[in-house]
Amino acid sequence: MTISGLETEDGPVACLVIRDVTERLHAQAEQERLRAEAESERIEARMHRTQRLESLGQLAGGVAHDFNNLLAVILNYGTFVIEEARELDPDVAAIARDGEQIVRASKRGTELTHQLLAFARREVIRPRVLDLNRVIVDVEQMLRRSIGEHITLDTQLAEGLPSVTADPGQIEQVLVNLAVNARDAMPSGGQLTIETGVVELEAEHGAHRPGLDPGRYARIRVGDTGAGMSREVIDRAFEPFYTTKRSGEGTGLGLATVYGIVTQARGSVQIYSEPGLGTTVSIILPMTDELATADTTPEPAPASRSNGETILVAEDEPALRDLACRILESAGYRVLAAENGLAALELAAAHSGKIDLLLTDVIMPGILGKELAERLLAREPGVRVLYMSGYAQPILASRGTLDPGVMLIEKPFGKSELLAAVRHQLDGEPPTADPPTADPPTADPPTAELPPAAGPAPSR
């Protein structure tokens, strides 16, 4: 009801207007209901993507663990074939070539399992404070060779970009994977742009990027002028082994690896694309006030022979246990072999001499390698510990980093790698009695908030 005064020739009059707004209120209520329903469906779809990717991550991690055991055996026995063939007769080239093919195939399998572990956020990372601009500059020439001369690479690097904390090798892998994907989406040529900048994430925007707190983030954008992607492809782009490429042209692990690496670094990745308008992948990583440091990772020491030490090997995979024992015994070590953690403790208790090093698998039936190490250290404080695993989550701290003092050799390893790691651990600082702690990563997968689109999808 609205009332107002009006001046007329007959003097002032009161005007009362009565409107029935029932239909308007019903329409507003219906609009609110539809908006709430759409938001609920969007949240539910995001939750389903999260659950699907998490389930795939658990599956990928378990598969990678079993495959790494098999690959370690195949890789090393292939190497033994090569060495023995050349020792018996240097002219027996055919047998050596066959062994080299076995080793080469094993190494290719190793690369695939590492990609699976990266997607599952179970890869061991070695983060340090980085200047993203420097990483891009260092990898730029390799990117140009990867994409070919028919594609122009343009880098737009923001000045004064704050540092981030990440594994430099993994950031390079992210850039290479995205560049290769962009190349495949532009078979006739085009432009690839890599730019950096700073983004301020506010509370309302943080709701669209689960697991991220409001604040300032460093951003990397990788954009191409290729065919673009449909919404259906975007929704599945981060799933391992999902690909729109023809058979033999891709594994479907490129974007899955990018997703795993970025989320493990506490960041987020999103895809913006429409058919015919190209694709842009936006990555944001939390910034740090620390200054970027140079890479001070020492070169691995060459493998050397034993000084008469005794090593206790605990490994539940018989073939891998026999392999490790063979390598160590050939280098002059005295070896005690156990099929699991409990058997290792019994063997250590029955052994009259000193045990210098425990070489243990991380995941074993009965008790895990971490508990075995703690119980053995409580009994013999001077024992050095070297973990081996292709799936090291039980001894990793938050986000996949190793706790201080924890030494790990990743499966599949070669003879020289194992001997070098053993020698390094035996010659290093004495172990501490404090056991490592582990907190499982909790980062959520990314979302891609785009309007529905139709049309042909590019190779991704």
How much beta, percentage-wise?
A: 15-25%
The CATH superfamily name of the largest domain is: Histidine kinase-like ATPase, C-terminal domain
Intertermini distance:
61 Å
Question: What order do the SSEs take from the amino end to the carboxyl end, as H and E?
Answer: EEHHEHEEHEHEHHEEEHEHEHEEH
Describe the structure.
This protein is an alpha/beta fold. It has 3 domains: 73 residues; 161 residues, 2-Layer Sandwich (Heat Shock Protein 90); 118 residues, Rossmann fold, CATH 3.40.50.2300. Strands 3, 4, 5, 6, 7, 8 and 9 form a 7-stranded mixed beta sheet that branches. α8 links the parallel β10 and β11. The longest helix has 67 residues. The protein is elongated.
Summarize the structure.
With 460 residues, this protein is of the alpha/beta class. It has 3 domains: 47-119; 128-288, 2-Layer Sandwich (Heat Shock Protein 90); 310-427, Rossmann fold (3-Layer(aba) Sandwich).
What are the main properties of this structure?
460 residues, alpha/beta, Heat Shock Protein 90, Rossmann fold, 3 domains, seven-stranded mixed sheet, five-stranded parallel sheet, 11 helices, elongated
Strand-helix topology:
Blueprint: E1 2-8, E2 11-17, H1 22-88, H2 93-119, E3 128-130, H3 132-147, E4 151-156, E5 163-166, H4 168-185, E6 190-201, H5 203-206, E7 215-224, H6 231-236, H7 254-264, E8 268-273, E9 279-288, E10 310-314, H8 318-330, E11 334-338, H9 341-350, E12 357-361, H10 369-379, E13 384-389, E14 408-410, H11 415-427
Parallel strand pairs: 4-6, 10-11, 10-12, 12-13, 13-14
Antiparallel strand pairs: 1-2, 3-5, 5-9, 6-7, 7-9, 8-9
Helix pairs in contact: 1-2, 2-7, 3-4, 4-7, 9-10
